[in-house]
Amino acid sequence: MSVPLRRIFLASLLRRRLASALSLLAIALGVALGLAVHLIHGAALDEFGRGMRAVAGKADLQVVGPRDGFDEALFATLARRPEVAAASPVLEIEARLPGREESLRILGVDLFRVLRVQPGLMPLAEGGGDLRFAALRPGVVFLSDDARQRLSAPGRSMEGEVLPPALVDARIAVQSGVRSLVLEAGGRVPGAGGVLGVMDLGAAQQAFARIGVLSRIDLRLAESVSPAAAQAALSALLPPGIALRTPEAAAGELGSLSRAYRVNLTMLAAIALLTGGFLVFSTQLLSVARRRREFALLRALGLVRAELMRGLLAEGATVGVVGGLLGVVLGHALAAGAFRLVGGDLGAGFFRGVAPQLAFDPAAGLAYLLLGVAAGVAGTWLPARAAAAVAPARALRAGEGERAGLPRGDGRGRLGAAMLVLAALACLLPPFGGIPLGVVSENGK
Predict the structure, then answer these.
(1) Which residue has the higher pLDDT, 418 or 338?
(2) How far apart are CA 126 and CA 346, in angstroms?
(3) Same domain for 382 and 259
(4) What are this entry's molecular-function GO terms (predicted)?
(5) Are residues 219 and 275 in the same domain?
(6) Share of the chain above pLDDT 90, in %
(7) Does any domain span residue 250?
(8) Residue 13 domain flag
């Protein structure tokens, strides 16, 4: 396309400032929402995976049970097995901070075994003191650097009021169930991430009234034993309701749980992007009707239909590119704001205690930019096709109505009926990859 023609089509966009701005804004919003959801969920899963690897350490398998835990006698049974080189018992407590939105995840570990399986959970006493004496004092908790930073900053109440820091004078009030107690911060856990605290297993069981209860057991297998062989040999020893899994499975399970939440948010972004494409279609359709004489004159001067169609498609692509670029920038800004305000779980509670960091993803940014361009081009295609089909002599005829630049409605009733039939059939689609695409699920509901 020649330079004068490019200027003609660009000038058309500049003349329709309000319509072009609305189309651009709708595309930018769709791209921004979709990219922000992708960035937030991806960063939260990565951070959760890193946290799980730090917590699991060298564990090859984990024995997990119900939420209220299981009998610690199982630990002795598994620790004596020849398939197990080392075992580390863990009691996990989700301790609420009274009157606050935040919570503190506390892990009770055996300080004499944790170094062999979970070195990242090895605490350091405050001021370099003797860890054994510091840990044996009742009510002592060792905080990760993230937890100390978060708890030393002002928090928010359930009603949104600003509250003073939860950690004051190395003490923090926590609540688990109906039990409330004050814990003393005895040191750091430099190898752990997230809002996490570590206590001696016996002290945690006593403080939270969980005597004889464990939440999981981390196992490091003997060198000649594979995880699959160990699972086959040890599964028979497990009571009902208790299972063996690999540490990586936890992140996969959480990703599956949050998938429906992420799909819903992504569909909202897709609706916004579709709205942007429809606005492009509407503005381009009206522009074609108003510019029919201009197009007819260009055609009479030698402009072929293919060039006219390419010029109009270029207008839609321009709106898509600018809207997509704006959406990519806005998407990163939305993700950064979401990390500050609601965290990596977007308020859903899947990634509680995880503090992800925003990272630029070139591949995702390019993909969503191309989606914006596709929305702009798709919205322009039908008006461009209609404009190229209008005969110049007809459009230049005196008294010809503006309808000459619009596509005819003949046969649209049959097309609408066909679309309704396709929509009804789409509702009957079975779940794909566990995601219900239609309204009928596997159990027929």
Answers:
(1) 418
(2) 35
(3) yes
(4) transmembrane transporter activity
(5) no
(6) 8
(7) no
(8) yes
Which domain does 69 fall in, by range? 61-245
Q: Are 162 and 220 part of one and the same domain?
A: yes
Query: Tens of pLDDT along 79-133?
Result: 999 999 999 999 999 888 887 777 888 999 988 888 888 888 888 877 655 555 6
**How do residues 132-158 score in pLDDT, each as one tens digit?**
566 667 788 999 888 888 888 887 776
Question: Are 92 and 18 found together in one domain?
Answer: no
Residues in the chain: 445
